[in-house]
Specification:
The complex is a heterodimer of chains A (297) and B (294). Chain A is built from 12 helices and 2 strands. With 297 residues, chain A is mostly helical. In chain A, strand 1 and strand 2 form a beta hairpin. In chain A, helix 7 packs across helix 8. The radius of gyration of chain A is 24 Å and the shape is globular. Chain B contains 11 helices and 2 strands, in the order ααββααααααααα. Chain B has a two-stranded antiparallel sheet. Classes of the chains: A mainly alpha (297), B mainly alpha (294). At the A-B interface, helix 1, helix 3, helix 4, helix 5 and helix 6 of A face helix 1, helix 3, helix 4, helix 5 and helix 6 of B.
Chain lengths: 297, 294
């Protein structure tokens, strides 16, 4: 054995050990995230938490001196309304663009659209929030004669623009995964391109498309800075598109800095973090299972 | 059988309508982005200059430049990259080259997929609980970088794994046939052939880390800190630092009476930096794909 090879034989197990440890680290991190966030909120979770009041009361007054109340229903409504509205906008446009890119357009336009979608995905959320704060804000005040432009509508449009890239790219993957033989068979029977899409491709790719929407939802639910800056600061259940709302994520971001470490308010914010983690974990897990179902069939 | 029918005409009309609607839908996605970016650049023009980049914010951040935040972002992103890239690539090598198809691998895959979908504020809470408090590091560049590293690592693992999997099995088999060990094969054949995919994935995460606000807001980034201008070594590991993303948030929501051009200029520099890094990765991907040997 030459000198170099001898050195390699000695160091190889070390390198391979490092590789194995790195592999396991992913599991450690997921559990770690849940553990450490849970740990900071555990005090409130086990001692003072009244589940009915927490989940069903819209009264969020953590800083009141006389009567502290921790109901997050209004915050859940904020997250829910912004997400649903954003999806109502993003899904048609995202699916439409994916179908267009996949089935209807030429290769050069396809490259341009894909690059633009990638760049759309790259814009930082604080910049989206800034756009909502400065640009959308004025647009809404002017177009709808609203008193304030930082509203549910503002946040939803911004969130839709943020979720579209992920919906487009995963939907496009799902459409690409449908075998060409499906398209050819349909066309051999005289179908137009649109009929191929509508009658053959969409049903065939529906699992992947569903996964795309779910991942878009996960993105929207978890978004923090953009909604913090664009939806206003009102903690109340919205009754119109022009109401200000506050989401779960924005609440944590804006109140954690001011709450003393270890206090009840601080712990409640961490409990909200656990709730968010659980929601997005479930949504992502479902999306992954749905996609796996596709791969198996 | 091939004569023109009423159904044939109406379905072809439907197709034309559909393709127009889809084209419009796609354009409606692209145009707002371009218009918004152009508007940002236009509003920022009076203030943008080299001086803007190298001078500090003054007068309570209502004037001056963005040197301190820019340097802070550089430190945090650089340090987080130094942590997440090696570990991420090694983990991907493990998953693709060493791990068997057993339950442990499936759990790891699930963990990586879910880690990628965790909201940024939850990453912030984790960083606060684990690094700032539990590990006792305190709010600092180190804690913020570790938090960013945990955030970017799963995606680096996923994209590296894809790049490694794209190398044909026959390349590896040829190596084994001449007596190479597994690590030798990886080092000399698999890695060099997947470098483009690995680099692209890493560069994309660099741009993501540069733009994130929530994870660093709670773990080490501050609204204001005074450092000497033009000094590249002004920050230290356990210092708190300003960051460009947080700075944009601060001056647009926490500080009153900031002149508009200053706000837009800060946004333009942030978006510009991120888009430039992404453009680099796209260019790299195209260039290296043309040099692929299979």
């Amino acid at each position: 054995m030459t000198g170099w090879r001898r050195l390699e034989v000695l160091t190889e197990p070390v390198i391979e050990g490092a590789i194995r440890i790195s592999g396991i680290s992913a599991i450690i991190f997921v559990f770690g995230i849940f553990f450490f966030v849970f740990r900071e909120g555990a005090g409130f979770l086990f001692n003072h938490l009244d589940w009915r009041e927490f989940l069903l009361s819209p009264e969020w007054y953590p800083t009141s001196v006389a009567n502290k109340r921790y109901g997050i229903l209004a915050l859940i409504a904020g997250t829910g309304s912004v997400t649903v509205l954003a999806m109502l906008i993003a899904v048609p446009f995202g699916l439409g663009a994916a179908v267009f890119v996949s089935e209807f357009c030429g290769p050069r336009l396809k490259e341009i659209v894909k690059v633009v979608v990638e760049l759309l995905a790259a814009i930082p959320s604080v910049v989206w929030g800034f756009i909502g704060l400065k640009v959308m804000n004025r647009l809404i005040i002017v177009l709808f004669d609203a008193p304030v432009g930082l509203t549910l509508l503002n946040g939803s449009i911004i969130l839709a623009l943020m979720s579209v890239p992920i919906i487009v790219s995963i939907s496009e993957d799902a459409l690409k995964a449908v075998p060409d033989s499906f398209r050819e068979a349909a066309m051999a029977m005289g179908a137009t391109r649109w009929q191929v899409v509508y009658r053959v491709l969409l049903p065939a790719a529906k699992n992947g498309l569903l996964a795309a929407v779910l991942l878009g939802v996960g993105r929207a639910v978890g978004e923090t800075m953009a909604v913090l800056m664009a939806t206003g600061h009102a903690v109340k259940i919205p009754t119109s598109l022009l109401d200000s709302v506050r989401t779960l994520t924005a609440t944590i971001a804006s109140e954690l800095g001011e709450s003393p470490v270890g206090s009840e308010h601080y712990q409640v914010l961490f409990v909200i973090g656990v709730l968010l983690f659980t929601i997005t974990f479930t949504v992502n897990l479902t999306a992954d299972l749905v996609v796996r179902g596709v791969r198996r069939s | 059988m091939f004569a023109e029918t009423r159904e044939g005409r109406s379905s072809r009309r439907a197709e034309v309508v559909a393709s127009v609607i889809l084209l419009v839908a796609t354009l409606l996605l692209i145009l707002p982005l371009l218009v918004i970016l152009a508007y940002l650049a236009f509003q920022a023009a009076p203030v943008l200059s080299v001086d803007f980049l190298v001078s500090n914010p003054v007068r309570g951040m209502r004037a001056g430049g963005i040197w301190a935040p820019l340097l802070g972002t550089l430190y945090m992103v650089g340090l987080s990259l130094a942590i997440s890239a090696p570990i991420g690539v090694l983990a991907a090598i493990y998953l693709n080259e060493y791990a068997g198809d057993n339950w442990l691998t499936r759990v790891i895959h699930l963990a990586v997929v879910n880690l990628a979908g965790v909201p940024s504020i939850v990453h912030a809470l984790f960083g606060l609980g684990a690094f700032v408090l539990f590990a006792g590091i305190g709010r600092s560049i180190l804690a913020a970088s570790l938090t960013l590293a945990v955030m970017t690592m799963p995606v680096i693992v996923a994209s590296t794994k894809e790049a490694l999997a794209a190398v044909p099995m026959s390349f590896r088999e040829a190596c084994w046939n001449v007596g190479a060990s597994r690590w030798q094969t990886i080092r000399s054949i698999v890695l060099p052939n997947s470098v483009s995919g690995i680099l692209t994935g890493i560069i994309l995460q660099v741009s993501r880390a540069a733009g994130e606000t929530a994870p660093i807001m709670l773990t080490g980034a501050v609204f204001f800190k005074s450092i000497p201008e033009g000094d590249l070594f002004a920050y230290h590991l356990f210092d708190q630092a300003m960051a460009l993303s947080l700075h944009l948030f601060t001056i647009s929501t926490q500080v009153p009476d900031v002149p508009d051009p200053l706000l837009y200029a800060t946004a333009v520099v942030l978006v510009g930096t991120v888009l430039l890094i992404n453009a680099l990765s796209i260019f790299l991907r195209v260039y290296l794909r043309s040099r692929k040997k299979w």
